[in-house]
Amino acid sequence: MPYFTTADGTRLAYEDYGTGKPVFFAASWSLAADMWEYQVPYFVEHGYRCVLLDRRGHGRSDRPGTGYDLDTLADDIAGLIEHLDLRDLTLVGHSTGGAEVARYLARHGEDRIARVAFVSAILPYLLLTDDNPEGKPMELYEAAARQFQTDRPKWFADRAQGFYATHLGNDVSPALVEQGVRRCLETAPMAALELWRANARTDHREGLRQITVPALVVHGAADQSALIDLTGRRTAKLIPGCVYKEYPTAGHGLFATHIDQLNSDLLEFIKG
């Protein structure tokens, strides 16, 4: 397992598979690189190099007391990209990973980036404000935070079936659902809590408007974690010329329920 050290001394684990043009996969909130197990072999077999990061507080990386804001996390991604000297890179971010990728572009530009894909991304801005009437009040996010601090395993377990939209007939086994909950619970509780709050507070709208590289937005119409009217559809309207794909039966966990469709759409986009 290779590691690199960030500017603030945090040691982060990463994975690097295959050869060819690089694709960077950024993981969801409370999940680490392992969540991409249904994508990485596919892209390696199609001739791509796949790079994945365990963000701080997640997976095998250090658990520092600070750095769970989107600026620091974006800088961590930049540190790995520079460490490996990645160029002509495709960025793929799911959920919070999409927010990290958007923040990376806003802070570090597009010089090394060929294209970007936002999958079920927590974008563009979740918080209710005078200029964001579609958002939700911070009290709603803080209520969930209190539930984390009371019974975090129950919070994840109660939402696991909805995460995969099993009520729409998506075929996922009980073992896969259990694995997903277990992986989330392996994340440092404080990291999950602080990143939850950072997701709600971070406004990505201006950065999304400035994207000039080819962009793909993929979202499930049945996403209960990132409601499509609040996130995916609004994101697609902000990014100039982006390709938008909506999966009618997909929830947030479409990386596991719609494997063939997602992999095919990503491959078509990357080739393009």
From TrEMBL:
Residues 32-258 form the AB hydrolase-1 domain. It comes from the Bacteria. The keyword Nucleotide-binding does not apply. InterPro entries: AB_hydrolase_1, AB_hydrolase_fold, AB_hydrolase_sf. Keywords: Hydrolase. GO terms for molecular function: hydrolase activity. One of its GO terms (cellular component) is membrane. Signal peptide: none annotated. Pfam families: Abhydrolase_1 (PF00561). Coiled coil: none annotated. PANTHER family: AB HYDROLASE SUPERFAMILY PROTEIN YCLE (PTHR43798:SF31), MONOACYLGLYCEROL LIPASE (PTHR43798). This is Pimeloyl-ACP methyl ester carboxylesterase. The lineage of its organism: Bacteria, Bacillati, Actinomycetota, Actinomycetes, Streptosporangiales.
